[in-house]
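Quick one: co-fold with zinc ion.
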Amino acid sequence: MTGSPCIICVAITGSLPTKANNPAVPITVSEQVESTQEAYEAGASIVHAHVRNDDETPSSDPEKFARLKEGLEKHCPGMIIQFSTGGRSGAGQERGGMLPLRPDMASLSVGSNNFPTRVYENPPDLVEWLASEMLSHDVKPEVEAFDLSHILKAKEMADKGQLAGTPYVQFVMGVKNAMPADRDVFDFYVKTVNRLFGKDAPWCAAGIGANQIMLNEWAIAAGGHARTGLEDNVRLNRDTLAPSNAALVARTAEICAAHDRPVATAKEARAILGL
Ligand SMILES: [Zn+2]
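Sure, here it is.
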């Protein structure tokens, strides 16, 4: 694992954090492009993006996604663009309305679970529809595993030809009322991905809030890839707000250096993910 490049994904905005939580959260498309460019220059090779309305509420407007994609392609050449089809940004098929824009990747939740104050609903027919849209528009899914069953569901879908290639799974830990950041569960997730998809299959991990830095440590040490960004965590440490997405990327890059893992360039990340 030492020596293998580590992909840093920056989740710039999300659906929840606002400027009241941290003024650095990028809301408008131009703020998002600027924040992503800084993060790209700090080492991020994937940008995971949601879009917002001007009043900071979540949006699923394909026109906003189109403007964002155009800005990112101009200012972050080669960076992997991943759009969220998560359930906080819209309802039903609205969640995949931007897939015809053919971003490099999109997040795909394959099962349901609880969120802090609600059920995160991913009914089977919607999951299948989102996956089929990704196949037809040549968009690589990143499977969001909020639970062990989601990893096994990805295997079933891959075997049925509903996902192209080897699934790229991201473990999401530390969402209140979903899977906590539990070390034994994390180890079993890694073991399960290796068993189902092969020992060289890439995977990624994200931790929410104070778990972000811990999941970065665990994933980087275990040979996985890492996600950071203001979507998941607005703090640099207990006492300090993160001044930018780039500052969180720089923190993750330091952890890579401590584990002798070079930060993957966008070109290397594309090769690792088969894009
Ligand atoms: Zn997201």
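If it helps, The chain has eight helices and 14 strands.
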